[in-house]
Amino acid sequence: MDTKELIESGDLELYVCGALPANRAQEIAQISKQHPEVLEEIISIENAYQRLAAGLAPDHNDETYAKLEAIIGAKNKVLKSPSSWSPYIGWAAAGLLLIASGYFYNANNEANEEIVQIEQQKEFLETENIEMESINSQYVSTLQVLSDPKTVKVNLAGQAGFESSNAVAFYNNEKNVTYIDTKGLPEVPENMVYQLWSLTLDPLTPTSLGTLPTEKDAYNELLRIDNDYDTQAFGITLEEAGGAIAPTLERLYTLGVIDKG
After folding, report:
1. Which of 50, 38, 45 shows the shortest CA–CA distance to 16?
2. 67 versus 146: which is more confidently predicted?
3. Do residues 205 and 220 lie in contact, with contact meaning Cβ atoms separated by under 8 Å?
């Protein structure tokens, strides 16, 4: 079958309608790549469908519409009658088919979007669950230390010039950990940090346990500090951002000695 016979056969209309067997549709797809006149005819048929979907009345002198009408009429078993409305019955059926196709296409897209949203919500909840498990694990670990009989509570009282300041440390020498409650410290000035010191008293030897977070929310939490030193007292000083090698005693805000009794 040459291209002219193919164009006149009605197979291209069936191809556009999706009514051909898969193997024949594949043949026509391949032929359209090799013969521009076949591709042009397919585009013409597709344009006819688009006009039909837009509600435009067909031109009865248009061969493409005539072929489509014949195919649709045969497919839907439309009976001809003297009424002037009969030629449009098949077109109405085709229009409804196209509208329905558009509806289901949109519905399918909406369903896919809902699936994506559900997957995103699922991932969000899984992340939230992991974070909650981590927080719960931290709480359990904190409670274990605080309830341990070997954990010592140390009150850090405000020092000269900073009498209204205070803090509380919970020290466990066996677990090498210290928890510090800094709610009693004033808000840290800009470009400054609080620094926690482990002290031995004889001779007086300070060892930095690090700077404390400057975020305001951190003051409402117990801060966990690794501490494997033989601490006899704790001190908190105010230092320039980055911390100091040795404590600035003029800015010693709080000090507390561990009660060995």
Report:
1. 45
2. 146
3. no
The domain limits of the chain are: 1-147, 152-257
Q: What is the pLDDT of residues 14-69, one digit of tens each?
A: 777 666 787 888 888 888 888 888 888 888 877 776 665 554 444 444 565 565 55
What is the topology classification, in CATH, of domain 152-257?
Answer: Immunoglobulin-like (2.60.40)
DSSP string over 52-115: HHTTPPPPTT-HHHHHHHHHHHHHTTPPP-SSTTTHHHHHHHHHHHHHHHHHHHHHHHHHHHHH
Q: 261 pLDDT exceeds 90?
A: no
Query: Do residues 41 and 28 lie in contact, with contact meaning Cβ atoms separated by under 8 Å?
Result: no
* Rounded Cα distance, 211 and 205, in Å: 18
Per-residue pLDDT for 208 more than 80?
A: yes
- Report how far apart, in Å, the C-alpha atoms of 260 and of each of 7, 153, 155, 172, 198 are: 103, 11, 13, 13, 15
